[in-house]
Amino acid sequence: MKDFYVDAKFRVRYAETDAMRIVHHSSYIVWFEEGRSEFLRKIGMPYSKIEESGYFFSVVEVRAQYKHPAVYDEEVIVRTRLVEVKTRKVIFYYEVLIASDGKLLSRGKSIHVSVDRDNRVVTIPEEYRNFWLQFVSEVGADF
Amino acid sequence: MKDFYVDAKFRVRYAETDAMRIVHHSSYIVWFEEGRSEFLRKIGMPYSKIEESGYFFSVVEVRAQYKHPAVYDEEVIVRTRLVEVKTRKVIFYYEVLIASDGKLLSRGKSIHVSVDRDNRVVTIPEEYRNFWLQFVSEVGADF
Amino acid sequence: MKDFYVDAKFRVRYAETDAMRIVHHSSYIVWFEEGRSEFLRKIGMPYSKIEESGYFFSVVEVRAQYKHPAVYDEEVIVRTRLVEVKTRKVIFYYEVLIASDGKLLSRGKSIHVSVDRDNRVVTIPEEYRNFWLQFVSEVGADF
Amino acid sequence: MKDFYVDAKFRVRYAETDAMRIVHHSSYIVWFEEGRSEFLRKIGMPYSKIEESGYFFSVVEVRAQYKHPAVYDEEVIVRTRLVEVKTRKVIFYYEVLIASDGKLLSRGKSIHVSVDRDNRVVTIPEEYRNFWLQFVSEVGADF
């Protein structure tokens, strides 16, 4: 099965915890985005460059499942895969793991459409699409 | 079709916007939670009281769809419905609307399991469950 | 002593708490901004309108003192005063209080310079300055 | 002049930006905390261990000055120094720099008192104090 992923590793910030003493569930959504940023950086097309060229990935759907909690100071990995690239749509798949033992904390998915500066849906330029298609994974595609 | 909902109304904070000049998608997850808090307050069983009694709603899944962006200072409504109450699980459904014209910005859903102080899944006390069952809606149940 | 203030009232969100089970200190900075927004709205010149006219309040300094913690679900008031209006600078002063008994949780201050769309410091238009000068308070000016 | 500091390096997250397309000023407060966490980790006494022993650094004051804005994806450094250790109080000083050229974005300071689990001010254990005193800097002490 075709697979390619990029890992982003960082520690849980105190501000990301909540009164249950664990990471607040909304923090994972921010982490997914950080994973996506790292993915695009690593394949050589940082999101900041995409934006400069006038294209934006507008989030149209996000989904997260929570398996185990994380606490302050723990080192976590966000493992990001690109699972679909269509004419106007891309889908990313995420796993958040404890860095030390690989325990799965959360799984997630985000669906994006390509928009211009005025937030109008536009076709993804073919050169971008062809470039990204090289990095598409089959793992996580069924989430 | 049976329906009951609670509205929470507030304005978009500047800190909730991002470099696209619109509300960041993770802010909606926080708003859903605020909608849930308001729902529980309005039916007379604030979440803070539930926590005091030793029960917690651990989030096991969250999902959001984004239809239209919101900008700083706009007044929004989070409309919350309780759509399922099981022995160990409750499901909430959310709509985020522009307060002035009712335009739908986002829809969401969150699935919770009942846990104790040590984060162990426990059965929801029958009196809680029976109380909540009065407020269950059929609208949004298919999201 | 000349005094004028605007109150913004809302409840503590769960996402604003941290692992100490109290509101994270960075949340107060966001609340100060919400107080400032409400102040400008109430005097009839919402910040969104100021931005539309091409002026921005760039934050150059912020300061907060923390007296007592707040917890989830508590209703708090952010009491905002405008304490200085200069050619290129405005200063706001904030108090965060428990809504029910007026207990002081935090005091804060923010200093802003007027900038244009390209983040260059510019003189505040005289009509804005004269309008704001009516609402300047002496209370809090020494913070 | 005695000096010791610890650097934490990371990239600006998209969620940390605001509608001015720059990092929101409240994000720096979270970054200071991350700098503080890294400082304590590096000197061999992570804050998570301090908390486990029953002591907490309650924030009683925080101050930030903003010199230049940061944008999404930029790599920044939070340079943290411990500038005061008293019987019940510690003070940290922070500089946020652009990683590539050392440009100063922000300076900050946080004052903490030592509290126990019930948020009561307590004396910092002498062994902790003596350990920390080795790492106190004179640079930044006048901020």
Global outline of chain A: globular
Tally of helical runs of chain A: 3
Multimer state: homotetramer
Largest contact between protein chains? A-B, 19 and 19 residues
Computed structural class of chain A:
alpha+beta
Helicity of chain A, as a percent range:
10-25%
CATH H level of chain A: which superfamily? Hotdog Thioesterase
Report the average pLDDT across residues of chain A.
Answer: 96
Classified by CATH, the class of chain A is: Alpha Beta
How far apart lie the N and C ends of chain A? 15 Å
Count the beta strands of chain A.
Answer: 5
Specify the CATH architecture of chain A: Roll
CATH topology of chain A: Thiol Ester Dehydrase, Chain A
* Weakly predicted, low-confidence segments of chain A: none
Main beta-sheet annotation of chain A: 5 strands, antiparallel
Can you give a write-up of this model?
- The structure is a homotetramer of 143-residue chains.
- By secondary structure, chain A is of the alpha+beta class.
- The first copy, chain A, is built from 3 helices and 5 strands.
- The first copy, chain A, has a single domain (6-133), classed as Thiol Ester Dehydrase, Chain A (Roll).
- Helices cover 22% and strands 35% of the residues of chain A.
- The longest helix of chain A has 18 residues, at 25-42.
- Chain A is globular and about 45 Å long.
- The first copy, chain A, starts with 5 loop residues before the first strand and ends in a 10-residue tail after the last helix.
- The model of chain A has no long low-confidence stretch (mean pLDDT 96).
- Chains in contact: A-B, A-C, A-D, B-C, B-D, C-D.
- At the A-B interface, helix 1 and strand 2 of A face helix 1 and strand 2 of B.
